[in-house]
């Protein structure tokens, strides 16, 4: 499925240290164009740490050091010429708890395009807001209340607002760290449906604790264990015929 | 998770372990019952035992109930546990294998009914030796398949898959010789046709035993070997090691 697509991001022997402690121990994996790749693994295995490397969110964590190479479209994202703010627009992130700014729904989406100078007029900006909210499947629900605070929306709506905010700056890759863990099954289904639609335009890397969610939304699944990438393969294969016993123990709910 | 250990029993959820164990053992019970049905049907026919034939006919209802119960338990596991990997392969294989067992049950019932017809005739029909022989052969295959299932024994399963063509050959030879009888003495045609149906039923039992063995290979190795030629089958399995 994903084998003859182009590589969008590539991690090569990535190691992450928190002080002396090595949290990611030499992980190499590619993220392809238009794919959804799921990162799964037991709590503390380093999924969030690894995800944060992909848009340099770890830069903001005291004592955190990243080694190895990560490229976006062939360019090293840790290169000194790479602007981290710009990088985070190209590689957007959606978090576990929806975290809209304490501003209007409109402002939540308009903020990014405005600071990145993506709109030359109010009209442009309005359009970006509408398109982003539509892509996030939220437009119809909020179009009459754009000036109301984003924090007044339901959890599922807030999460879609955060997704709209992320896609408003036209990223290439979207990182999602347990984006549905605070949502009910219906809101979860809506977000999952959205992930599928978005994958035609973006690459998506999603961390999830729900095996069923990984199985439902991803093309490939990567299993992490104690800071190492144990197995990565087509999701169909990983869930019916995993190659590694650690992967199998984890996805089948056995003692590892 | 070694293959010889209790590979379905080491989940963190104890009740999941129990559900899978119960599913497996109920399946094997049903297998044992069906195997008896085949042997008894053949015995009823070759020994012209109407009482035994009636028993086989009645027992088929029990086989059907097993099928429904096992399907129900399997669906329950799919819905509530959302099994993956080897657990998923076990449940799916059982759902498929159960329908093969049920069909073997049907073939046994068919043989029992033909036995009741043949008991009415006054002389021993032709082909009883062949029935005994093929009957024994397919019952052994079935027994082997169930054993392979219980032990997750892929090698044994492959043997059974290969065995099927021998049954097919025996079936052809037996049918041909029956054909000669019919040509020699047209008065035996109706009775020979009944025997022909028995051959056919037994040959089908062999096919279903072979299907069971194919499910076992999938269950253990995750490899679909249906519609695979024998020499390719060896290659396909060799690649796994
Ligand atoms: N800011 C930090 N400072 C020090 N150690 C950290 C920090 N963040 C994470 N760690 C450690 O790094 C390891 C990986 O943590 P990480 O949060 O990436 O795991 P995770 O796979 O996302 O877990 P979970 O599924 O619970 O979210 C853990 O041992 C954790 O304690
Ligand atoms: Mg995490």
Describe the structure in your own words.
The complex is a heterodimer of chains A (256) and B (241). Chain A is α/β, with parallel strands linked by helices. Chain A has a single domain (7-251), classed as 3-Layer(aba) Sandwich (Rossmann fold), CATH 3.40.50. Helices cover 35% and strands 26% of the residues of chain A. A 6-stranded mixed beta sheet of chain A has the order 6-7-8-3-9-10, with helices on both faces. In chain A, helix 3 (105-115) packs parallel to helix 6. The radius of gyration of chain A is 18 Å and the shape is globular. The two termini of chain A are 30 Å apart. The model of chain A has no long low-confidence stretch (mean pLDDT 94). Chain B is an all-alpha fold. Chain B has one domain: Methane Monooxygenase Hydroxylase, Chain G, domain 1, CATH 1.20.58. Helices cover 82% and strands 0% of the residues of chain B. In chain B, helix 1 (14-46) runs parallel beside helix 3 (85-120), helix 3 (85-120) packs antiparallel against helix 6 and helix 4 packs antiparallel against helix 5. The longest helix of chain B has 36 residues, at 85-120. Chain B is flat and about 65 Å long. Chain B starts with 13 loop residues before the first helix and ends with a helix. Classes of the chains: A alpha/beta (256), B mainly alpha (241). The complex binds adenosine-5'-triphosphate and magnesium ion. Adenosine-5'-triphosphate is lined by residues 18, 23, 41, 43-49, 61 of chain A.
């Amino acid at each position: 499925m994903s084998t003859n697509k182009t590589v969008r991001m590539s991690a090569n022997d990535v190691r992450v240290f928190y002080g002396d402690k090595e949290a990611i121990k030499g992980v190499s994996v590619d993220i392809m164009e238009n794919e959804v790749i799921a990162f799964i693994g037991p709590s503390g295995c380093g999924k969030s740490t690894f995800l944060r490397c992909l848009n340099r969110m770890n830069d903001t964590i005291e004592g955190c050091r990243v080694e190895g190479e990560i490229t976006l479209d062939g360019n090293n994202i840790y290169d000194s010429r790479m602007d981290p703010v710009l990088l985070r627009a190209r590689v957007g992130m959606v978090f576990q708890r929806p975290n809209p700014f304490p501003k209007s729904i409109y402002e939540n989406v308009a903020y990014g395009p405005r600071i990145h100078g993506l709109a030359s007029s109010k009209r442009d900006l309005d359009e970006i807001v509408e398109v982003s909210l539509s892509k996030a499947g939220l437009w119809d629900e909020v179009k009459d209340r754009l000036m109301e605070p984003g924090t007044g929306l339901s959890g599922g709506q807030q999460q879609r607002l955060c997704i709209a905010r992320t896609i408003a700056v036209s990223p290439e890759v979207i990182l999602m760290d347990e984006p549905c863990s605070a949502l009910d099954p219906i809101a979860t289904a809506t977000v999952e449906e959205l992930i599928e639609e978005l994958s035609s335009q973006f690459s998506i890397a999603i961390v999830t604790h729900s095996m069923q969610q990984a199985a439902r939304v991803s093309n490939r699944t990567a299993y992490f264990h104690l800071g190492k990438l144990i197995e990565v393969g087509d999701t169909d294969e990983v869930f019916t015929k995993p190659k590694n016993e650690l992967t199998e123990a984890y996805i089948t709910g056995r003692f590892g | 998770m070694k293959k010889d250990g209790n590979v379905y029993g080491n989940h963190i959820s104890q009740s999941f372990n129990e559900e899978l164990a119960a599913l497996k053992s109920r399946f094997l019970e049903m297998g044992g019952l069906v195997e008896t049905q085949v042997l008894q049907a053949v015995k009823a026919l070759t020994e012209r035992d109407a009482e035994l034939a009636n028993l086989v006919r009645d027992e088929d209802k029990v086989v059907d109930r097993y099928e429904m119960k096992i399907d129900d338990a399997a669906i329950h596991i799919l819905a509530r546990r959302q099994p993956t990997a080897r657990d998923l392969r076990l449940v799916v294989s059982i759902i498929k294998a159960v329908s093969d067992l049920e069909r073997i049950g049907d073939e046994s019932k068919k043989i029992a009914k033909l036995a009741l017809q043949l008991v009415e005739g006054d002389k021993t029909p032709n082909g009883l030796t062949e029935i005994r022989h093929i009957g024994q052969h397919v019952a052994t295959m079935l027994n082997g398949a169930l054993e392979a299932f219980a032990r997750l024994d892929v090698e044994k399963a492959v043997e059974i898959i290969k065995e099927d063509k021998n049954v097919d050959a025996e079936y052809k030879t037996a049918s041909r010789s029956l054909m000669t009888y019919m040509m020699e003495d047209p008065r035996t045609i109706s009775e020979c046709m009944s025997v022909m149906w028995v051959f056919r039923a037994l040959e089908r039992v062999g096919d279903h035993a072979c299907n069971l063995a194919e499910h076992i290979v999938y269950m253990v190795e995750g490899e679909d070997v249906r519609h695979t030629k024998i020499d390719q089958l060896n290659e396909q399995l060799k690649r796994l090691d």
